[in-house]
Amino acid sequence: MTKFLGLLLSLIAIIHIIQAQGQQGFTSLDCGLPANETSPYEESYTKLMFTSDETFIRSGRNGRIRENPEGFAKPYETLRYFPDGIRNCYGLKVEKGRTHMIVARFVYGNYDGFDVKPKFDLYLGPNLWATIDFQRLGTNSTNEEILHMPTSDSLQICLVKTGETTPFISALEIRALGNDSYITKSGSLMRLSRSYFSKSGSNIRYMKDIYDREWVAHNGASFQKEWTQISTALDVNNSNKYVPPKDVLIHAATPTDANAPLTIELPSGGSGEEYYFYAHFAEIQDLQAKDTREFNISLNGEVLSDPIIPKKLDITTVSSVGTCQGMECILQLTRTNRSTLSPLINALEIFTVIRFPQSETDENDVAAIKNIEAKYGLSRIAWQGDPCVPRQFLWGGLNCSNTDMSISPRITSLNLSSSGLTGNIAAAVQNLPQLEKLDLSNNNLTGGVPEFLGNMKSLMFINLSRNNLNGSIPQALQKQGLELLVDGNPMLCLSNACRKRPKKKVLVPIVASIASAAVVIAVLVIFLVWRKKKATAVGGTSMVNDTFANKKSRRFTYSEVVKMTNNFQRVIGKGGSGMVYQGTVNGSEVAIKLLSQTSTQGYEQFKAEVDLLLRVHHTNLVSLVGYCYEGDHLALIYEFLPNGDLKQHLSGKGGRSIINWSVRLRTALETALGLEYLHVGCTPPMVHRDVKTANILLDENFKAKLADFGISRSFGGRESQEFTEVAGTHGYIDPEYYRTNRLAEKSDVYSYGVVLLEMITNKPVISEEYHVAEWVGTKLNQCDITEIMDPKLCGDYDSNSAWRALELAVSCTDTSSSKRPIMSQVINELKECIACENSRISNNGGLLESQEINISLDSTVVPRAR
Ligand SMILES: *[C@@H]1O[C@H](CO)[C@@H](O)[C@H](O)[C@H]1NC(C)=O
Ligand SMILES: *[C@@H]1O[C@H](CO)[C@@H](O)[C@H](O)[C@H]1NC(C)=O
Ligand SMILES: *[C@@H]1O[C@H](CO)[C@@H](O)[C@H](O)[C@H]1NC(C)=O
Ligand SMILES: *[C@@H]1O[C@H](CO)[C@@H](O)[C@H](O)[C@H]1NC(C)=O
Ligand SMILES: *[C@@H]1O[C@H](CO)[C@@H](O)[C@H](O)[C@H]1NC(C)=O
Ligand SMILES: *[C@@H]1O[C@H](CO)[C@@H](O)[C@H](O)[C@H]1NC(C)=O
Ligand SMILES: *[C@@H]1O[C@H](CO)[C@@H](O)[C@H](O)[C@H]1NC(C)=O
Ligand SMILES: *[C@@H]1O[C@H](CO)[C@@H](O)[C@H](O)[C@H]1NC(C)=O
Ligand SMILES: *[C@@H]1O[C@H](CO)[C@@H](O)[C@H](O)[C@H]1NC(C)=O
Ligand SMILES: *[C@@H]1O[C@H](CO)[C@@H](O)[C@H](O)[C@H]1NC(C)=O
Ligand SMILES: *[C@@H]1O[C@H](CO)[C@@H](O)[C@H](O)[C@H]1NC(C)=O
């Protein structure tokens, strides 16, 4: 049965692959598809394979339309919106030198609940493509299409905020078109209309159209009363380079009055515009021997081409350019004198020309700067789209040469000073040949000063001050016309003695060297002391590594575990990794987590947790009494915390009391202290990775302790690290970490922010409609804290402290990790909140809690080992 199912599944997979192959050169992005939904998936009507846009953009949030009376298909029900940053861009792969149809679709559907029609700009690379203005349109949806030949293999599509409203996008569809089709003398084609002539037809797309163009039927009222429809049941040959669908070609319109011309009024694209037409003809009537059909095409009376004689059941495409002066623009098909039949038309495409005059930044410079960005793990929201142009969106820290729009801008200056850079100086810097200024000062860069800097011809200024560079200055950098600043690098050798080839004259103005030997010596002494300290710390760590195997005193046998739990009598919890029992060791109560299976995953997590907990001690981290590791039996023995977890105390489940605001603030503070200790207090620093209300336990005095370190990881201090698998709990996972796989302590800050939001609002973290952060986001503007606060608090809180806590939670859940505070800032802010709440309580005549809070503040101001 399972085998059969497997076969069936692989068959389905094969079918999908075959169908997806038919869509070669297609990119179909369902923007804002939630992470828990399948991607790619097949859209049921068109059979197009849609993919989540997640990996094509790194900003924005997911939304979903609230109303769908018009029945938009699945890809258009979700959307991505961009509350942060001015310009947000998709980066897509295309084929250079080939015409692509690019369609951007927008369905507003009151996704934000504000019912305010948005207005924003759409850019193609550095150039304005269109302004999306729902107010002017008066519709619920719109789309923009261009036929465009990219000048490089990558394509940036950007949404730009131009006013108060938030840009969004529902879908992006890109199709590589046939060779040599839709070629313009200059510029790209912006679609005005693409229609065919069937009174009763409906819109036609893929798979009937192999390029997924959308053909709109001139049906109902849009089929003029001056026209008569003709159709055929026979097959029409549609093979030319445009390949319009056969279903389009089997219908045509002719003038009802046989002597009148067929008149089509063009949609306006503004007067004086250049129009491109692609008219498709096929003779679909059975002609008598005496009959001929021949006609001219004219635009506002000016004949556009030679007379046309449609071929029997075979396509003829006429393409032509014309300009319309004045307001009206009328296309006419007029029969010639020798024609016995009136003209006919099967399908018509109309475009205006749109020019993209601004050249993109040099491809190699773009590749180099992206490489540098990736190496240093920079994630700046403004670093999207073209780095240099348009000028108003120039990436922060860059400057470029761009005087002439038709010439690709080049990067001339790179300033990453004070950006928390670690590691060595990026080799990709040498791929910016026109760089004149380089400022990497005030970071934590290590390693040597690379020689290539001396070989970059344009480079005139380098500031490497205040880093941790070592070695000596390469010969190549000691040249006239190059200003090199290297002060504040204690390990960098500046004296002549350590240069490989001694130099007679120092040509480089090395600013620091003048700062005299005294400073160098002082720094050296500090360094030696520091190194010694570090060596002891390393010794300590290696001892720690031994503990898992050796620390016998904490290790229990399985029979001891059986005894301490009285043969697993009392279950107090059930987690993903196993059951939790209550027991006693030497008269004190303990909680024992029995790991259900010895899968590698289970063992790894077990070992990680034991290693961590035997090593770290903090009053706000749950402590490990011991462990059992005997054959298949793995158990963790913790101190017993009788008051359950924070989640229960918010929901009231498990017979737990709802905790009041001051206890919530104190719990938040204590949790923050535990987290801060993990982030900065222990060596190596750790990220918890699974901060959530269910993992915050409360002891008999309601003191909070963070638990469950099974997926915690050490990380390289400020440096973020990449892990192959993203772990954590849905709803609490940092979206940036989720996207980039880069883990740093700010991911915990995000999860912590979600916990705070839960404590403030008591809303589910994820509901059908919202993430709690989004819900708060929509409520924030209303200036009424009572709408946001947990109703179970019955208004019993200081609103000032509530606001501060809320603002803190919002900043912790910022989508951009760089904007989130670090835990010590969180702690300071929480103390202020508690002070506000305390003063309210004492003003109210000093309730019981006030004393409690004051005590807690005193005893836990500094994270401290127990
Ligand atoms: C837009 O949607 C609303 C309901 O969401 C509907 O009442 C209205 O008719 C729609 N407008 C158009 C132009 O379809
Ligand atoms: C399009 O042209 C390229 C070369 O210019 C060629 O390799 C490719 O096969 C052509 N594709 C089609 C569909 O004709
Ligand atoms: C359709 O037209 C093409 C080009 O004119 C021709 O090569 C092909 O044989 C035709 N196909 C049929 C079925 O007539
Ligand atoms: C059709 O166009 C040709 C030239 O292309 C012209 O000689 C002829 O007069 C035109 N006929 C009509 C009816 O406009
Ligand atoms: C077609 O006929 C009209 C009048 O019937 C005449 O004015 C015109 O010159 C003719 N054109 C040609 C190309 O014969
Ligand atoms: C950037 O370069 C331009 C010349 O391309 C110059 O006018 C401008 O002052 C420079 N800006 C900065 C901040 O250096
Ligand atoms: C680099 O930027 C910092 C501010 O971020 C500024 O103080 C410094 O002067 C800049 N360096 C150069 C070389 O312009
Ligand atoms: C070089 O960088 C250091 C540290 O950021 C700064 O103090 C100094 O002013 C910079 N020097 C110049 C000339 O920009
Ligand atoms: C360098 O890193 C240390 C700790 O890793 C940190 O204390 C210091 O502030 C960092 N320096 C800079 C300039 O970022
Ligand atoms: C410079 O520091 C790196 C580590 O950051 C080390 O590998 C290298 O050996 C050091 N070089 C010198 C010359 O001390
Ligand atoms: C994804 O999550 C949302 C919210 O939790 C839920 O409503 C939806 O059913 C989930 N979808 C799938 C396919 O699991």
Report on this structure.
The protein is an alpha+beta fold and 866 residues long. It folds into four domains: 21-177, Galactose-binding lectin (Jelly Rolls, Sandwich); 190-354, Jelly Rolls (Sandwich); 363-538, Leucine-rich repeat, LRR (right-handed beta-alpha superhelix); 644-866, Transferase(Phosphotransferase), domain 1. Helix content is 25%, strand content 25%. Strands 1, 2, 3, 7, 10, 13, 14, 15, 19, 22 and 24 form an eleven-stranded mixed β-sheet that branches. Strands 35-39-40-38-37-36 form a six-stranded mixed β-sheet. A five-stranded mixed β-sheet has the order 25-26-28-30-33, with no helix packed on it. A hairpin with a 6-residue loop joins strand 2 (41-42) and strand 3. Helix 10 (661-681) runs antiparallel to helix 16, helix 12 (745-761) runs antiparallel to helix 15 and helix 16 (823-843) runs antiparallel to helix 17. The longest helix is centred in the middle third of the chain and has 35 residues, at 516-550. The model is unreliable at 1-21, 496-550 and 846-866 (pLDDT under 50). Bound molecules: 2-acetamido-2-deoxy-beta-D-glucopyranose (11 copies). Residues 34, 36-37, 766, 768 line the site of one 2-acetamido-2-deoxy-beta-D-glucopyranose. InterPro entries: Kinase-like_dom_sf, Leu-rich_rpt, LRR_dom_sf, Malectin-like_Carb-bd_dom, Prot_kinase_dom, Protein_kinase_ATP_BS, Ser/Thr_kinase_AS. Keywords: ATP-binding, Kinase, Leucine-rich repeat, Membrane, Nucleotide-binding, Phosphoprotein, Receptor, Repeat, Serine/threonine-protein kinase, Signal, Transferase, Transmembrane, Transmembrane helix. It comes from Brassica oleracea var. oleracea. It is a single-pass membrane protein. Residues 1-20 form the signal peptide.
